[in-house]
Structure formats: structure tokens, C-alpha cells
Amino acid sequence: MPKLTVEGFPSVDVESGKRLVLAMEEDAGVDILHACGGNARCTTCRVEFVSGAPSKMTRAEKSKLEERGLTGIRLACQIACDEDMTVRAISRLEGSGRPDPGKKPESTIQPAPEWV
């Protein structure tokens, strides 16, 4: 089982292949935002990798980050927990002014991943 560490939260073991956005929310107890429901449309699930950044990226994530001019971050909704990783949660419900984090993401990466 991969170990997930989110800065400021205890490390947790997560099911291999689980979406990072869900592992952060359900396993690590992080109030991460996912306003678009985890579909790579809004970038509210932004994380910064401290270690263990995956080398592959979905086409949807790459396109959205390029469209927004974002560098040095990844979208938690587009990453599967396949290895140990340490991340910083950039967009959290706390302090966002939003009433909730967004619609619960599906258990599988959406849209269907095309790896680049």
C-alpha cells in the first residue's frame, strides 16, 4: 500500500490506484477542494509535490495546467496513488468561502485518462 503524506496531516496508507483527491479527503482527512467533481475542469484540487511526483500525466491535466499557465503544481483529481508521495494541499475548503468542497469525484480518473 502506498503511503500518502499531506503536509500538516498524519501519514496514511492508501489503496493502490486510489485517486489522490479521494485519498486526501477520505483517508488523510484533508478538506481539499474539487469544485468540478474531479473532472480536470477547475484546478481547485491543486497540490504541490514535495516527493514522489508521478512521471506520467493525463492529457486533460496537461491541457488544463497549460490553459491556466500553471507550473509546479499538479491536479489531485488526475493522479492515482501508485507510490509513496508527499504533497502540499494548496486549495482547501477552509478559508475558501465556498459552502462545500464540490461534488464527490468518481472513483476512477475522469475524463478517461489519455497518458502523455
Topology (elements, then pairings):
Layout: E1 3-6, E2 12-13, E3 18-19, H1 20-27, E4 46-51, H2 59-68, E5 74-75, E6 80-81, E7 85-89
Parallel strand pairs: 1-7
Antiparallel strand pairs: 1-2, 3-6, 4-5, 4-7
Strands of the widest sheet, in order across it, are 2-1-7-4-5
> Biggest sheet, open or closed, and with what strands and sense?
5 strands, mixed
For the record, the CATH class is Alpha Beta
Number of separate helices: 2
> What are the segments in which pLDDT stays under 50 over at least 5 consecutive residues?
none
Count of DSSP E strands?
7
Count of spatially separate domains:
1
Beta fraction of the residues? 15-25%
| CATH architecture assignment name | Roll
User: How big is the Rg?
Assistant: 13 Å
What is the string of SSEs from the N terminus onward? Answer: EEEHEHEEE
- Termini separation: 25 Å
Identify the quaternary structure here.
single chain
SS-based structural class? Answer: alpha+beta
CATH topology: Ubiquitin-like (UB roll)
What overall geometry do the principal axes of the alpha carbons give? globular
Could you estimate the helical fraction of the residues in percent?
10-25%
CATH superfamily: Beta-grasp domain
Polypeptide structure, described:
There is one protein chain. With about 120 residues, the protein is of the alpha+beta class. It has one domain (about 5-90): Beta-grasp domain (Ubiquitin-like (UB roll)), CATH 3.10.20.30. The protein has helices at about 20-25, 60-70; strands at about 5, 10-15, 20, 45-50, 75, 80, 85-90. A five-stranded mixed beta sheet has the order 2-1-7-4-5, covered by helices on one side. A hairpin with a 5-residue loop joins strand 1 (about 5) and strand 2. The longest helix is centred in the middle third of the chain and has 10 residues, at about 60-70.
